[in-house]
Amino acid sequence: MRRLILPVSVFGTVCGCAVLLKNRVTGGPCPSKAKIIGKTVVITGANAGIGKETARELAKRGGRIIMGCRDMEKCEAAAREIRGSTLNPHVYAKHIDLASVKSIRSFAEKINREEKRVDVLINNAAVMRCPAGKTEDGFDTQFGVNYLGHFLLTNLLLDKLKDSAPSRVINLSSVVHILGEIDFTDLNWDRKKFDTKKAYCQSKLAIILFTRELARRLEGTGVTVNALHPGVVATDLGRHTGMHQSQLSSTVLSPFFYLLIKSPELGAQPSVYLTVAEELERVTGCYYDVMTEKEPAPQALDQEVAVRLWDISASMVSLETTVSVPASSEAARTVKHNLPAAADNMTTMTTS
């Protein structure tokens, strides 16, 4: 028996160190313990992966969760599971197809009509490296779903977000935005040869440009807008990449994958952090790599490109009304800023 003590101790130590190292490498859990009781959170793509675990964590914290998904059967099942595991009855499934302008408008109309408030909008849904294809309205699938759909949805919910201020918009982007380029001559890959990787990177760059421009336009409203890279997460999103399909990646590289690739639970923590952290209540126009604020790639900081992309996007989705541009030249030069404190009668996040 004594002979087993040393190897068991060594094994336990190694496992413990591996867990601690993984948490350090991947960012670990959200440090904030804040509750969101009485807050309404809308999350797209919430039936699986990061979105589902974000919904679960925020339901644990007392939020009223609206899960917007294309596949209602899976969404209803996920909502039931979350209600059961969190004992929070206020978790709801609603249909939205981000590849359809009609569906997005219908979803937004229902939210605006049925919900008294929207405190947080998490634009989580995405497709990644998928084959060439078009949305219902003729947009490149990745550009349409990842960016344009959320651009339209956010604008349609802005009045509700403003009425609920202080409120937050959280856009999920990716570190691969550094490889992105906005090609205004062919945003939808109608003329040039389709490149699924470049199309994905373009969509993620567009999200950060949108985040910064929206933050600028919402100056003084009490609505903050931030973008994040959640890290490398083991979800079905990467099914088109073939990353883990070789024998090499599934055996030799498994220890490295364990340290670098997060579970969906860990992958949800950055979204949770940007939702609940009290210190971020007035921070806007920022990009977070997991839970650390970082400056995005230079092309994500181009104000002229951001404004041009906004105008073209509004035209593409027939958006008749958008938020106004700040009149001051200083506002035009500065995107990252702290918003003024909201009115005294507004509710705030509470800590447990």
From TrEMBL:
Keyword match Transferase: no
PROSITE patterns: ADH_SHORT, PROKAR_LIPOPROTEIN
Organism domain of life: Eukaryota
SUPFAM superfamilies xrefs: NAD(P)-binding Rossmann-fold domains (SSF51735)
Keywords noted in UniProt: Oxidoreductase, Signal
Presence of the UniProt keyword Disulfide bond in the record: no
GO molecular function: oxidoreductase activity
Coiled-coil region: none
Signal peptide positions on this chain: 1-16
Family from the record: Belongs to the short-chain dehydrogenases/reductases (SDR) family.
Cited PANTHER family: PHOSPHATIDYLINOSITOL-GLYCAN BIOSYNTHESIS CLASS F PROTEIN-RELATED, RETINOL DEHYDROGENASE 13
Protein name, UniProt field: Retinol dehydrogenase 13
Provenance organism: Astyanax mexicanus
